Amino acid sequence: MANVTLRNVRKTYTGGFEAIKGVNVDVADGQFCVLVGPSGCGKSTLLRMVAGLETVTGGEIDIGGRVVNQIEPADRDIAMVFQNYALYPHMSVYNNMAYGLRNRGMAEAEIKTRVEEAARVLELSAMLERKPRQLSGGQRQRVAMGRAIVRQPKVFLFDEPLSNLDAKLRIAMRVEIRKLQRRLNTTSIYVTHDQLEAMTLADVLVVMNGGQVEQVGNPLAIYEKPATTFVASFIGAPPMNLMSTRPDEIKSQLGGAAGEAGIVGIRPEDFVITDQTPAGGVALPLTVEAIERVGAETFVYGSREQEDQRVAATPGELPPGEIIVRIPGTEAPAIGQKIRVAAVRQKLHLFSGDGRKRIEA
């Protein structure tokens, strides 16, 4: 096992395109780190740099106290699981898992021990003689994971390993990956664009955008205190409601918050439908545009009346825009109905006008 430290890591391609812009991340020994962000944010490029599949333009990648920038992938003591499984179709499950160990010259007795133990852990013991075409998608992904496990590496790297699976199987495999990582206690770095996957798997979450790290921390801490409006809108489903307002409105309506604040954020679950305006909080008149019932809760999509975009109609109100409200149960207002929703001061998130800085009141 080992820690992984990225120090000012950069990647610039021919032509000057900078894909990774000075990333600093420290993954402690045994931690499960998840890199999350939209397509094109650089998360897979960063993972491939850790693996040695992409060269490093600048900075250092340290695995277990050893800078590996110039070390070949095979010598970094890492194992990678890809999204497309990358299994040999003509080989049995056993031989797929044993292949890498044979290439390293390991004795057959030791290979057998490792493969059978990994198969037991992954519930593949009854499938060792099957070919990949005889397996389901989830079983193939478990074989790919088994091939990594038998290596007994210092670090596991996962590149969107569940993206090819259906929704139900993704949930099951997500749980299995987390249980497996805790059992093995191996440092792991996992790439995904799915923020729910990221929130449920990570010990430490790294939110990326445009080749840069927006925020690093505990998933719940990031959810509760996003550092930027990008993080606020990306982490959480449905996303946080973000509303622009003038600094003087923030100061007068929200209890003297810092004057540089220009954006107010409210999570959908922090709204309540009410006729009251809480002291120091906000209230919004909405017209219900759509309803989504998803079982134990309902999402209400509402639009503000088209009032002046800059000046709130009454104290405690914010300018127009689409608002999402999450309410428990299946009871909901009718489409077209006019309602009023409110949030208390403690549930508001304030950001600078450019969205790059969180403001504490």
What is the correct CATH architecture of the largest domain? 3-Layer(aba) Sandwich
Distance separating the two termini: 42 Å
CATH topology of the largest domain: Rossmann fold
Strand content is 25-35%
Instruction: Label the structural class.
Output: alpha+beta
In terms of per-residue confidence, which ranges show pLDDT below 50 for 5 or more consecutive residues? 307-318
Radius of gyration using CA atoms only: 24 Å
**Extended strand count:** 19
Helix content: 25-40%
Largest sheet geometry? 6 strands, mixed
Order of helices and strands: EEEHEEEHHHEHEHEEHHEHEEEEEEEE
| Approximate shape | globular
Overall residue-averaged pLDDT value? 87
Tell me the count of domains.
2
The helix tally amounts to 9
CATH superfamily caption of the largest domain: P-loop containing nucleotide triphosphate hydrolases
Task: Look at the structure and give the CATH class of the largest domain.
Answer: Alpha Beta
Which strand order do you get reading across the main beta sheet? Answer: 6-7-8-3-9-10
Main location: membrane
Family: Belongs to the ABC transporter superfamily.
Pfam families: ABC_tran, TOBE_2
GO cellular component, one term: ATP-binding cassette (ABC) transporter complex, substrate-binding subunit-containing
